[in-house]
Write a structure and sequence with these properties.
Elements lengths: L21 H12 L9 H12 L4 H10 L4 H10 L11 E6 L2 H5 L2 H12 L10 E2 L5 E6 L11 E3 L2 E3 L4 H9 L3
Parallel strand pairs: 1-3
Antiparallel strand pairs: 1-4, 2-3, 4-5
The structure holds FE2/S2 (inorganic) cluster (FES).
Length: about 180
C-alpha cells in the first residue's frame, strides 16, 4: 500500500522527480551489505542517501526504501517524520538553521532570525516548518541546541557551523551564498 506524506497539506510536495540512478542503487546495496544480521538496520543511512540525492524524502523515497529493506512504508515514514533532519518537501539551495534553545534565545537568536528572514525575503510562521524563498535559493528554520551554547547565537548554513551570529554577521553569511 502506498502512503501519502500528509497528502493535501503544505508538507506534502508529491513524489520526488528524477531517475533512480545505477550509482544510487549501487551505493544503497553497499550500505545494505554492511548490515548482514538485519538489513532493516540500514534504514537511516538509506534515508540520508535518498535525501542527499533528491533533496527531500517524499512518497517515492519512502516506497523505494521500504521495498529495499522489506519494511512496511509506515515503518520508514515514522522515521522521516520523527527526525527533524529529514525533509518532506524541497528546501532552498542554502538552508539556514538558527538555534532557538534558551542560551541562544538569550543571546539574540530571535534578532538573528528576523534579520535572516528579511535578507532572504521569506515569510510565514517559523514554528511550523522551514520558510522557503520563492526562487528556491534560501530556506530558514529554527533548530534546537546545536551544542555550542557558550558562543550563542549559533546557526548552521547547510553543513557549515557559525558562532556568535549577530545581525551584521548574518548579512555577511547571506551575501556569501553564491
Ligand atoms: S542553546 Fe544554542 S547551541 Fe546550545
Amino acid at each position: 500500500m502506498s502512503l501519502p506524506l500528509e497528502a493535501g497539506t503544505e508538507a506534502c510536495a508529491g513524489p520526488e522527480k528524477g531517475e533512480i540512478s545505477a550509482d544510487l542503487v549501487r551505493k544503497a546495496d553497499e550500505i545494505v551489505r554492511q548490515y548482514p544480521a538485519s538489513k532493516r538496520s540500514a534504514v537511516l543511512p538509506l534515508l540520508h542517501l535518498w535525501q542527499e540525492q533528491f533533496g527531500y524524502l517524499g512518497p517515492r523515497g519512502v516506497e523505494w526504501i521500504s521495498q529495499k529493506l522489506d519494511l512496511q512504508e509506515i515503518q520508514v515514514l515514522e522515521l522521516v517524520t520523527f527526525y527533524p533532519w529529514f525533509r518532506q518537501r524541497p528546501y532552498g539551495r542554502f538552508h539556514f538553521r538558527v538555534c532557538r534553545t534558551l542560551p541562544c534565545a538569550l543571546g539574540g537568536a530571535g534578532k538573528t532570525f528576523a534579520a535572516l528572514e528579511k535578507l532572504m525575503g521569506v515569510k510565514g510562521d517559523p514554528h511550523h516548518g522551514a520558510l522557503v524563498s520563492e526562487d528556491g535559493r534560501f530556506s530558514l528554520e529554527y533548530a534546537e541546541c546545536l551544542a555550542s551554547c557558550g558562543t550563542a547565537p549559533v546557526i548552521l548554513c547547510n553543513d557549515d557551523f557559525h558562532e556568535k551570529v549577530d545581525e551584521a554577521r548574518a548579512a555577511e553569511l547571506v551575501a556569501a551564498c553564491k
